[in-house]
Specification:
alpha/beta; globular; TIM Barrel; nine-stranded mixed sheet; Lyase, Ornithine Decarboxylase, Chain A, domain 1; binds ligand LLP
Length: 394
């Protein structure tokens, strides 16, 4: 379990509440540093690519870059974002099952990162548009990992990667196409908290080794849940890489930023239907994880209130699924009091969206002395910025 926010950070949050509109995301930079050090020391000698889908703010990327992290991306947008944060193409890996000709042409112009091919079709297209590119081939390990079904990308029935039986032929095909086939990529899924899943992958890789002797790179992806100790997983991952005579790469996202971040919202009504609700100014559009994955995020009241009671916390959308937490015990609040959803630093702001014309929240990071702006609150006029206000035709 991740630890609760530091008291100093909670105090700073109360100060921030006076200065910026809710809802907002806030991050404790000390926690980012702690997690970065934890992964750096557990995986010393490996290359660590931060999966920026977890939280793509430029200020965060820059911080991790100067600490020696590369960037793991899944779209042209993310690649260009990582370049905007100062990364060089050789410090970036591009994953994702679909790489369109337009996307590859953009990379041809802007600089091509290491590409992870997800299918034979992907290899053909990469060879055509980026001849001679450096490529890893993704393996589907066909493992039923212990996580939410949406996050179990390494299951045999998922759309990702090439199955073990076909992998050596497809890899050879890449060579024949003139690509620099650098190695193997195998990501199990996300939010994994059971070390047995990592052990099962090592067995799959052992079996594959009967057919694949040597690799330049073994990229074991991300997925590290907050309940896992990286130092206990690393030795087996390193020895697997050594068996392939490969360099070990990993791609943690959540683990580096989740517990540094909170989502802060204010309470604007207390009421009863058949259940007892607090109505907040943040809901599914600001924070999708509870609705999409049934995720439970602990709630910290930023007020001291009256008698404790059990509430459901609902957002402002006109959908009954817009509930961020149920059965939360809290002190009775006053209207306008605020609370924080914990461990929201990863896949929180990154997955916020504009349904119902809700602007995306501002984001701020506490450096121990001051609040650094990571993203300004989205302006209302930005919501219709790309829409013609006069008829426009093609
Ligand atoms: N590498 C690859 C190829 C991935 O697909 C992912 C995550 C990662 C690395 C980073 O995984 P992490 O270390 O963060 O678990 N929106 C979901 C998480 C989706 C993760 C997708 N891929 C959530 O809110 O839990």
């Amino acid at each position: 379990m991740p630890s609760p926010p530091r008291p100093q950070f909670v105090e700073a949050l109360k100060d921030l509440l006076e200065r910026v509109p809710t809802p907002f995301y806030a991050y404790d930079l000390e926690r980012v540093g702690t997690q970065a050090r934890l992964y750096r020391s557990a995986f010393r000698g490996a290359r660590i690519f931060y999966a920026l889908k977890a939280n793509p703010r430029l200020r965060l990327l820059e911080r991790l870059r100067v600490r020696g992290f590369g960037a793991e991306t899944v779209s042209v947008g993310e690649v260009l974002r990582s370049y905007a944060a100062g990364y060089m193409p050789e410090e970036v890996v591009l994953n994702g099952p679909v790489k369109t000709p337009a996307a590859l042409a953009e990379l041809e112009r802007s600089g091509a990162p290491t590409l992870v091919a997800d299918s034979a079709a992907d290899l053909e297209r990469i060879a055509r548009i980026l001849p001679g590119a450096g490529v890893l081939l993704r393996l589907n390990p066909d493992l039923p990992v212990d996580t939410h079904p949406h996050l179990a990308t390494g299951r045999g029935d998922s759309q990702f990667g090439v199955v073990p039986g076909e992998w050596p032929e497809v890899f050879e095909r890449g060579r024949a196409l003139g690509l620099v086939m650098r190695g193997l990529h195998v990501h199990l899924g996300s939010n994994l908290n059971n070390p047995a899943d990592f052990a099962a992958r090592l067995e799959v890789l052992d079996r594959l080794r009967e057919r694949v002797e040597r690799l330049g790179v073994l990229n074991l992806g991300g997925g590290f849940g907050l309940g896992l100790d990286p130092a206990s997983l690393a030795p087996a991952m390193f020895s697997q890489a050594r068996a392939y005579r490969a360099e070990l790469w990993i791609e943690p996202g959540r683990a580096l930023i989740a517990d540094a971040g909170v989502l802060v919202a204010r309470i604007w009504a207390e009421k009863r239907t058949r259940r007892r609700y607090l109505l907040l100014d943040a809901g599914m559009t600001a924070f999708l994880r509870p609705l999409l994955y049934g995720a439970r995020h602990q709630v910290l009241p930023l007020y001291s209130g009256g008698r404790r009671a059990v509430f459901d916390l609902a957002g402002p959308a006109c959908e009954s699924g817009d509930v961020l937490a149920r059965d939360v015990e809290l002190p009775a609040p006053r209207i306008g009091d605020a609370l924080a959803f914990l461990w929201a630093g990863a896949y929180g702001s990154a997955m916020s969206f504009n349904y119902l014309d809700h602007p995306r929240p501002g984001e701020y990071a506490w450096n121990g002395e001051r609040w650094e702006v990571w993203r300004r609150p989205e302006s209302l006029s930005a919501l219709w910025r790309d829409e013609p206000d006069q008829p426009e035709y093609l």
